[in-house]
Design a protein that fits this description.
heterodimer; A: mainly alpha; MetI-like fold; B: mainly alpha; about 75% helix; elongated
């Protein structure tokens, strides 16, 4: 067990090193002088020299990377070119805008999709099963940002129930903040319900055919006890792994959802950084999001043996 | 069981039809358009469906039907090219890693896993930051973002067959390693790769639409379903149809691809048919 934990933890280190090198390379791969690119055409000659020195561009590439990595490890992601603020402050504050939306959406999707998938599996080939499969496949095929626009059109503009543009932070006014979060959370949750329900159904069907379920039935346990105590516990493991992967697609797609609902989150910061060619911002956002994704999947893998003890051996 | 089987066939047929329609649009989409998709007709600004413009016109009076068709051509071209790029490069790397194993394999896999660690769309966004918005940029960005999955699947298919006696026999009787891989190892990787390719095709369509929606994909005025959604957004109350139609096109395409993918998965793995 301990060996499993340690080897999994250690395997994340080369991954993170290569990830950081790739993110470092983003700026260096741009043709031309990064300092010149950041300053634009109307830079004064002195400014260019100063920025080049500050970025360490006069040193060899591997040394530049090590210096950059050392700074990152000290929490120094550089300064934003356009906003003249430390990138670390910006990404941390924007992270706390995005995180609640993603977490609530994923939780909500799981709460709805897992019972739906279990229901479908236990009534395989029934009309209810067909309804769950059909709606999951449809939800799976909806582009999230379009669904977001449709929800915006329906609830925000036609019915007028929810505020359309703007954002209130959770710490300032929790009630209003939740109101602004309803539509983005609904959008993200709906698009993920499909894949979670399908995965739950698939693994529950495998479990339902196993002998111990027949045994439990023969023992005289009620059907609901079988489903929730024996069925769910043993079929949840694949869904658990899927949740980690879904978080990745949520994090990757967050820029788009935040654009639809004009939320000033991490994704929006990244896209604005790309528009403005603000490379420290781009690097900071990609690094933070990828780091979270790697950490979450590490956590998913470390918890996995608790759900399926066969893995750790 | 019979009923489920019939559903599957209908689903697969629908999926195949969508894919063929997309292939057709990729080749002839632009030529089917009744108007030049970029021609302005300011008199028809934001008009609804009518005899002149069957599906209405956008904020510059450009014909929506023509733009949807041209957008299909752009999306389909990008998706097919990206898929070809990701498959070709991923298969070569996966074959090399799986066949030679040892340090080559370990090195390739460490790098590959690191690229799998990026959320796919995020990696694409990073590459688009280097390239700037362009159609060729999307192909490189999405191709590189989805290549690592192809490497993984190819490699594991190769590893599962590499040790079998007939592969060894092929080398012993004097066939070169390249010939052995081409004739005996590669076919083994085809079924899982077909399933992956279908799924990836859907991801690529979705990702391209998303990037174009952000203004980091197909650059306007050339239409794509994604950038049509972006440019119609300010007029969402005046002309909701401009938002509804491109999204509907993406949804139907993705639905077809997902249904086809399910059918292929059942075909490749009949033991688990109907489970997913």
């Amino acid at each position: 067990m301990l060996r499993f934990f340690l080897s999994r933890l250690l395997s994340a280190i080369p991954t993170l090193l290569i990830v950081s090198a790739a993110v470092f390379a983003i700026v260096r791969l741009i043709p031309g002088d990064p300092a010149q690119l950041m300053l634009g055409d109307d830079a004064l000659p002195g400014q260019l020299e100063a920025l080049r020195a500050r970025m360490g561009l006069d040193k060899p590439l591997p040394v530049q990377y090590l210096i950059w990595l050392r700074d990152i490890l000290h929490g120094d992601f550089g300064r934003s070119i356009t906003m003249d603020l430390p990138v670390s402050d910006l990404i941390v504050s924007r992270f706390f805008v995005s995180a609640p939306i993603v977490l609530i959406a994923l939780t909500l999707a799981t709460i709805i999709a897992v019972p739906a998938g279990m229901f479908a599996a236990w009534r395989k080939d029934s009309l209810g099963d067909f309804a769950v499969i059909a709606s999951s496949t449809l939800l799976l095929s909806l582009p999230g940002f379009w669904l977001g626009l449709m929800i915006l059109l329906a609830f925000g503009l036609w019915l007028g129930w929810l505020p359309v543009v703007g954002f209130v932070s959770l710490s300032r006014d929790p009630g209003a903040a939740l109101l602004y979060m309803i539509m983005p959370v609904m959008t993200l949750a709906l698009t993920d319900i499909g894949s979670i329900a399908r995965m739950t159904r698939a693994s529950a069907i495998t479990v339902a055919g196993l002998e111990y379920i027949t045994h439990a039935r023969a023992k005289g346990l009620s059907e609901s006890q079988i489903v929730w105590r024996h069925g769910l516990r043993n079929s949840f493991a694949p869904t658990w792994t899927l949740l980690g992967l879904i978080l990745g697609s949520l994090l990757g797609g967050i820029a788009i959802t935040e654009t639809v609902f004009t939320i000033p989150g991490l994704g929006r910061l990244l896209v604005d950084g790309i528009y403005a060619r603000d490379y420290p911002i781009i690097q900071g956002c990609i690094l933070l999001i990828t780091f979270i994704y790697v950490a979450v999947n590490l956590l998913v893998d470390l918890v996995y043996p608790l759900l399926d003890p066969r893995v750790a051996r | 069981m019979g009923r489920v089987f019939r559903h599957m066939k209908v689903n697969a047929a629908f999926g195949l039809l969508v894919l063929l329609a997309l292939l057709f649009l990729a080749l002839f989409g632009g030529r089917l358009a009744p108007y030049d998709p970029m021609a302005l007709d300011l008199g028809a600004r934001l008009t609804g469906p009518g005899p002149a413009h069957l599906l209405g016109a956008d904020e510059f009076g450009r014909d929506t039907l023509s733009r949807l068709l041209a957008g299909a051509e752009a999306s389909a071209w990008i998706a097919f090219t990206t898929l070809a790029f990701a498959l070709a490069s991923g298969m070569v790397i996966g074959l090399v890693a799986g066949f030679f194993r040892g340090p080559v394999d370990r090195l390739l896999m460490v790098v590959n896993d690191a690229f799998l660690a990026f959320p796919g769309l995020l990696l694409a966004l990073g590459i688009m930051a280097i390239y700037g918005a362009s159609s060729s940029g999307i192909i490189v960005a999405l191709g590189l973002a989805y290549m690592p999955a192809v490497v993984r699947v190819t490699r594991s298919a190769v590893l599962s067959i590499r040790e079998l006696e007939f592969v060894e026999a092929s080398i012993v009787i004097g066939n070169s390693e390249v010939a052995t891989v081409a004739r005996h190892v590669l076919p083994n990787a085809i079924p899982p790769l077909t399933v992956l390719a279908t799924t990836m095709f859907g991801w690529i369509i979705l990702a391209e639409a998303g990037l174009s929606f952000l203004g980091l994909g197909v650059p306007p005025p050339q239409p794509s379903w994604g950038n049509m959604l972006a440019s119609a957004r300010p007029y969402i109350t005046q002309s909701p149809l401009l938002i509804v139609l491109p999204g509907l096109c993406i949804t139907i395409t993705l639905l077809g691809i997902n249904l086809l993918g399910d059918a292929l998965r059942d075909f490749a793995d009949p033991k688990n048919a109907g489970r997913e």
